[in-house]
Amino acid sequence: MIHNDDLEKLIEKLPFFLCSNLSTHKYKHQLIEIVLDLGRRPEARFITGPEYLSQKLISWQDLDYVTKRVSKFSNENRAGIERTLHRISCIRNRQFLINGLTCRIGRAVVGTASVVRDLLESEQSILILGRPGVGKTTIIREIARVLADEMEKRVIIIDTSNEIAGDSDVPHSGIGRARRMQVAKTELQHQIMIEAVENHMPQVIIIDEIGTELEVLAARTIAEKGVQLVGTTHGNCLENLIKNPSLTDLIGGIQYVTLSDDEAKRRKTQKSVLERKASPAFEIIIEINEQNFWTIHENVKNSIDLFLRGNFRIGQVRKLYLNEKIKIKCQKFQIDSNLSINRGSRLTNSKNSSQLNWYLRNQSEDEKFFKLQKKKLIIYPYSLSNNVLKEVLLKMRFQFVITNEIKKANIIIGLKKHLKQNFKLKNLARQKKIPIYTINQVSIYQITKLLRSITF
């Protein structure tokens, strides 16, 4: 990963006795924020933990020195530094005088979006969940750059607090070719979201910190117009989102439904149950558990329905290691607190028989996929990049061989528009009984989706 933090531009705004200490600090590139509170020692918070920077106590003059060298504080008590991603937030006393500053380090980190590159190619709307300070804004900034520069999409960022593209009329280079719309007042964010769609024809809208019912309504409106959304909101997991009344409409909303006697008996539940009201505005949800440890819900509808039934938990865990390798694995499925489903295990619990049948019907595709993983695929690629195909197969942990001889293959994968014209290849495949699978375009998402659908 490549880091760009413009740290020196922030350090030079601090009092001299702090500049000299921070400039030579061995962990300065692991700095998260600097805290300056009146009458207290200045504190730096690193990834490894907090540390005092000086024995000297912060005075009114020190706070005044810093505030005069940054931009003007907004109504949200936030300021920035020109052409950087740093954010300075202030604490005021009862007379509205500034008696504390939090200087948060902003970084553009190239490579953070590699964990979910395939999800971005799917063109589905993505919501990122995480607690404050876990790195949601850094991730969404890199997603904007990838979508705009590498996927050549028309991307517009709704930058309410100037955290994504910096405190300047000229956006920071960390967002690439993406465009940025600033918001004069936080309460107007939902209006700017709609304005972006109506006036600037974006393919992707990026929103940081969706928090009010009006913003949720605007997000649903944009989703209905066919624009891809990428947004963030506070919360540790999907359960927090479901239980948050102002945000629950992002995932379709929750309502009480009264079942008939027969249906309640069939489900073995009470007559009044919770169910999802509508389709979610975001089809994919990413939970940022740690900076390099993410939980993915690729089918939000299914995840919410399972959660509301109170019996299952399904998740995909992705981890990015220091050597930039990505590992993907599925969590165990669980039914109630005393019954767990391991692939291949026998399920015996008469009380949950109806739920098990429902589970097995919905998980049949997964079972086929895991059976396929155990087979050795001998693939003849047609009009496909071998490197892209190998990358997907390795990530999905397939046993495979890529061959140039059709007779040796047990599967053919190729571009639909090219295979359509090759009658000779199709006839030979029919004679040898080799199945042909096609994709519309060469992308990691399309190949992954195809491999999950293959059966023998």
Automatic annotation (TrEMBL):
Keywords: ATP-binding, Chloroplast, Nucleotide-binding, Plastid
Keyword Zinc: no
Superkingdom in the source lineage: Eukaryota
Domain AAA+ ATPase, residue spans: 122-278
Pfam families, alphabetized: PTPase (PF25516), Spore_III_AA (PF19568)
Gene3D superfamilies found in the cross-reference section: P-loop containing nucleotide triphosphate hydrolases
InterPro entries cross-referenced by the UniProt entry: AAA+_ATPase, P-loop_NTPase, PTPase_dom, Spore_III_AA_AAA+_ATPase
CDD domains: AAA
GO molecular function, one term: ATP binding
Protein's name according to its UniProt entry: AAA+ ATPase domain-containing protein
Organism listed in the record: Asterionellopsis glacialis
